[in-house]
Amino acid sequence: MPELIIHPWIIRRLPKNKFFNSLPVGVLPARGRPFRGSLPCRGVSHLPRPKRLWPEPSAPDPDRFVYERSLRERGYARIAGTDEVGRGPLAGPVVAACVILPPECDPQRYRDSKQLTHEQRVVLAEELKASGALIGVGIVAAVEIDRLNILQASLRAMQLAVEKMPVAPDFLLVDGRHPVPLAIPQQALVKGDSRSASIAAASIIAKVARDALMEAMHHEYPQYNFHRHKGYGTAEHCRLLQLHGPCPLHRRSFRPVREALEKGEP
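The structure assignment produced for this chain is given below.
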């Protein structure tokens, strides 16, 4: 397999960031497309309905540890949640995290990172590291997002995060509809970050990690104010993109960036 390229701006910036110094971070602009397994067939009425592995949460504030608890009862010991952030921005990498929560933690503290303030996410991320939670982080750069497409890049980032874990999980709870391309038993959960504490914890770690990276990138490219919008397509970012044109962090396959490139061509 050929040597994989790690972009220089990542190498320069990660060692200077306090948050990244304490995390095992995998940066892999990967070669090739991850395998996407087939989905289970539907409409087979003559087969018995399979027994649920866990009950469906129905309360307004459901037990977000029900999946992990049910899996532990079935013999799984290292149950990890994985999630990604950064699918929608016009610039910057997609970042994923994988987390195995310690058994004694309070799972109700961890919820979808989008429901938390930046300050709350930072506090919870530090608590996770101090509690003995097992954490891995994966990063896929913008150039690889353009090459793979954002879905495949997101799956690759989650794969990297799992591979950077200090110990290998024996079951994965994955946010979304698509499995991670790894030979590990797993379950994809739509809106998993609001249904599983492990996935929610992973979303918190990934969000804090990506925010820290984009704040560092502001010093490299201050004309775009990455520290304010983190690369998302806000009105301010789109205006600055049209004014200055794209930088190496921008995703050329995304329409606003592509249009800015076409506008700047003679």
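Interim note for the steering committee: The beta strands are 25-27, 79-85, 94-100, 134-140, 171-175, 186-189. The CA atoms of residues 23 and 136 lie 7 Å apart.
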